[in-house]
Amino acid sequence: GKDLRHAQRSVIIESPFITAKRMEELLPILRKLRQRGVRITVNTRDPKEHDDAEYEYQAALAVYEMQELDITVLYTVKHHRKLAIIDGEILWEGSLNILSQIDSCEIMRRTVSQQLANEVVRFINAGRWL
């Protein structure tokens, strides 16, 4: 939360699932970041991949709302990575779907390291998003 709010240059989020409830919390933050010129890239599943029609609708609407903010939204087939990289230095990795889960026992690990963040950026081929 705090790391996201204080982003200065770039935010990369990989999260396979998106829900309307979670996006209600995140969209105002993402909007403020975009107003400050922070580049944001979201990598998720194509909403059509969701089995449940309600989840598909929620994800599609969230993607539209993010694109309206000029956030780059990419689709990865059978996507399952959960991570965030902020300003090429703060790395969050774990099992939490960042764009969908609110109350969860899933965990995320925070690391502040340009070197580790760069390794992950290289691994997921995300250099162009920084």
What does this protein look like?
The chain is an alpha/beta fold and 130 residues long. It is built from four helices and six strands, in the order H-E-H-E-H-E-E-E-E-H. Helix 2 (20-35) runs parallel beside helix 3. The two termini are 19 Å apart.
Keywords:
130 residues; alpha/beta; 6-stranded mixed beta sheet
Overview in brief:
This protein has 130 residues and is an alpha/beta fold.
Unreliably modeled segments? none
Radius of gyration: 14 Å
Read across the widest sheet, the strand sequence of neighbours is 3-2-1-4-5-6
What is the approximate shape?
A: globular
Note the main sheet: 6 strands, mixed
What percent of residues adopt helix (DSSP H or I)? Answer: 25-40%
**Distance N terminus to C terminus?**
19 Å
Question: What is the oligomeric state here?
Answer: single chain
Tally of helical segments = 4
* Mean pLDDT metric: 91
Tally of DSSP β-strands: 6
Topology as a string of helices (H) and strands (E):
HEHEHEEEEH
Alpha-beta content class? alpha/beta
Share of residues in strands: 15-25%
Note the topology:
Blueprint: H1 2-5, E1 10-14, H2 20-35, E2 39-44, H3 53-68, E3 72-75, E4 83-86, E5 90-94, E6 108-112, H4 114-123
Parallel strand pairs: 1-2, 2-3
Antiparallel strand pairs: 1-4, 4-5, 5-6
